[in-house]
């Protein structure tokens, strides 16, 4: 998504512009969609690969927050021509996060470790 946002700064093209020119106001004079895409990509990278001050916080561990933010990021990136495949990945990721939420999975406090209360650990014990 970062690459699509940067690419979009130089070659702006709304994916849905063959239907309507109604979204052209997001391109000129201020690059609104480009900046939103770049911002969402930085936020989602910070969630997936957290730096020390973010790891273990309630925001980092919240599946509900991810279930709310990822559809908005997917919608914004689906608007640009360069980000259609990223939107598909967000759609798949949203399904996986929903599955994890429904089955009771949790995100561990320490990144790249397993929770002691994990269903996997309970099943293998």
From TrEMBL:
The chain crosses the membrane at residues 32-55, 67-92. InterPro entries: DUF7727 (IPR056144). It holds the Pfam family DUF7727. Residues 1-105 form the DUF7727 domain. Keywords: Membrane, Transmembrane, Transmembrane helix. This is DUF7727 domain-containing protein. It comes from Lachnellula arida.
